[in-house]
Amino acid sequence: MNKNVAAVRLVERDDAAAVVELPEELRVSLAAIAGVAREGLLAVGASVGLMVMHEMMNAEMTAKVGGPKHAKLTDRNGNWHGDAPGSVVLGGRRVRVDRPRGRTTDGHEIELDTYAEFANDDLLSQLVSERMLVGVATRRHAAVNEPVGDDLDTNSMSTSR
User: What are phi and psi of 79, to 5 degrees?
Assistant: First the structure.
């Protein structure tokens, strides 16, 4: 039985990108994740979660529209219309995100179930109620939020006075 086993070797940090041929999208994503990794595990989880959420929304829009962006298909159900600003609940705060937009062929806005689920305020309301019941002052909610990284903290809403 002949097995192919990858050879392991040490490389310098600057040479690491040249060793493995990865698609450009993946290299950019991995670089963003590596930058957040210094801030802790929750920050990495939050960043990866937002990337996955965005991919889920794109996949749902592709299914509802009837094809990927810029595809010239005659039997489409709708068309992509860029991105729109929105916000989702993450770690006890609302975080600004861009959500994909689409319109049906007769001009109606396409609603994304994925976005509606992530933007639902029920979880945030429940969290705020629980914090108030245990005695956290409403001005202190930002101080007791989960650490999700500096980028998401500066991009969040609903945590100020």
Answer: -135, 150
The reported pTM is: 0.64
If you count them, how many residues does the chain have?
A: 161
- Label residue 61 exposed, middle or buried (CB < 10 Å: 0-12, 13-18, 19+): buried
Q: Report the candidate in 156, 149, 117, 119 with the shortest Cα–Cα distance to residue 47.
A: 149
Q: Would you call 25 exposed, middle or buried from its count of C-beta atoms within 10 A (0-12, 13-18, 19+)?
A: exposed
**Tens place of pLDDT per residue across the chain (161 aa):** 556 655 555 556 666 556 556 566 666 566 666 666 666 777 777 788 888 898 899 999 999 988 878 777 778 888 888 899 999 888 777 888 999 999 998 889 999 999 999 888 887 777 777 777 777 776 666 666 666 666 666 666 655 44
Question: DSSP letter at 67?
Answer: S
Amino acid at residue number 98: D
Adjacency order of strands within the sheet including 93-104: 78-90, 93-104, 156-157
Residues 6 or more apart from 80 whose CB is under 8 A from it? 61, 65, 69, 70, 100, 101, 102
